[in-house]
């Protein structure tokens, strides 16, 4: 089965091409094409994953380019991480395809939406089975394109247009880092293949500084895609896209590409403690930074977006503290519960037609299916025991603790408290209390939307049990088996960490309950609306304003400067050349008067001049 | 008998040629221009005859050449005058300045 893994990304590509050709005619039935092809992908991915349990890593490829002695190969690889990612991506993509059928009903460009989904899924699946950096980079850019198209799907809305542009440009900034890192690695090792790079790094063929430099450059690429500080600002804005897109791209797959990249380049990172520290510090800072912004946002999707940024920070922290298994584990559980949360949020928006949580309330009784599912997602992300997020978060905390970086551990713990608090603030504001609006026509979503949520709800609970300190670390053992560069962090996991995580998350939940449901604590006890703290958080630490004033303004000034150079110096030179030629031509044409006698005179004088020259120089008689 | 030197013939031919050239380049009337061209041709004829009698290697071929030239010049004058006639019929002018249609 594994030798046929290359076919998995091709299914969504076929769906994309078919919908491009036939979309106009198929209209809303194009959903079936998209769903069918992603289902094929999912089945194949599951088969591949099943195979991978018993057989070793499969890798194949053919020569792609040959320039002198340089050979560049293309192919695909199925290792543990790839196989797992294939299943996550195709599963979430399949569920989102299904969900969109209900959510996007009545949309004019319905088939275009499905075509874009297909393109994006193709790119993401292609990315995860790439065996070398160059191929990964190609799909990496395709993923960026897919997200650009999907975020800007409502391109007639100014915000969506801006958000799409912002997402594309911000991730491009990161991509430059990845590109430079990739070229540097190729320069040093002569290969794009992961194995060759890891081997060179492991055997000391690369200098210490070079490893650190390339690792950091690659991490900059991951920062762009995974919305790590300071390149995080595009992710919340990307919520302008349709909600299923937010679930697919900005929760489960695309933003996971950055984490996946760091995970698959992990052997390189682990050779440099500086790079690891930077990854961990960036992750921890992003986790707490985004979580604090999430505390005050009022748009349901934006709260989720900031929680995504924060959770991605968690994963980076895990990877940076040598918790390879923890990072990948959280990537998996997060994909499920965050997709669930986004889909449930979409269902809420579908029902009440607003995204402002201040205008919602009392939806628990109206949305009998969405409500409990949203609660499951919220419990999972808050790290309440027995839910999937609890196990993966615990693993991360343990890894941070065992690595000996207690400050980062503390940050992660506080971020966990924030997470529990803002997620339950969201939950109570949306589902508890009394309805704020005239909500007579609130109704539950159709089955095509609730079934994917049910599947994800189940996964959000059970997916944590593949790697627990109680029933065995099956996932961790499997992920690290046979990989010479990875060691399973089997360090002891103190029970008190698990207890601390539980207490912290329960404290967050209780605080949220007291403030937003019971209202025994005033909402403004730490600073109400209009206070400085609230303003800073509500305006996202003024990061956007800062970028606008510094980088955007500077670039604008530079752009104006260069446009003047272009207009006056470059264009001046060009028009000087054309002007001269034109003048010469005009002069020549003015000599052509059609007067025979003038021609004769000129010919005669020309001959005379020639003869005089001849006579003076001696001519041919000399 | 042979008292006139070669240079005298050559100077005569030079003067004749220059007059012809001046007329061909400056006169407005096309008939005068044609006549001036004839003058230039005849200046050449004088040179040919003079060299055939008094040149470094005298030979009869120069005089025969002259006969040819005179014939060709007559033909040329006939054709030129015919063109001029039809041009005059069309444009009602013999002014060379106005004959610049080939420019376009």
Task: Tell me what you see in this structure.
Chain B: It is a multi-pass membrane protein. Chain B: InterPro entries: NADH_UbQ_OxRdtase_chain4L/K, NUOK/Mnh_C1-like. Chain B: It is an enzyme of class 7 (translocase). Chain B: Its EC number is 7.1.1.-. The complex is a heterodimer of chains A (622) and B (104). By secondary structure, chain A is mostly helical. Among the domains of chain A are: 1-131; 532-591; 596-621. Chain A has 24 helices and two strands. In chain A, strands 1-2 form a two-stranded antiparallel ribbon. Chain B has one domain (6-98): Helix Hairpins, CATH 1.10.287. Helices cover 74% and strands 0% of the residues of chain B. Chain B has helices spanning 6-26, 30-54, 61-91. The radius of gyration of chain B is 17 Å and the shape is elongated. Chain B starts with 5 loop residues before the first helix and ends in a 13-residue tail after the last helix. The model of chain B has no long low-confidence stretch (mean pLDDT 89).
List keywords for this structure.
heterodimer; A: 622 residues; mainly alpha; two-stranded antiparallel sheet; 24 helices; B: 104 residues; Helix Hairpins; 3 helices; 74% helix; EC 7.1.1.- (chain B); NADH_UbQ_OxRdtase_chain4L/K (chain B)
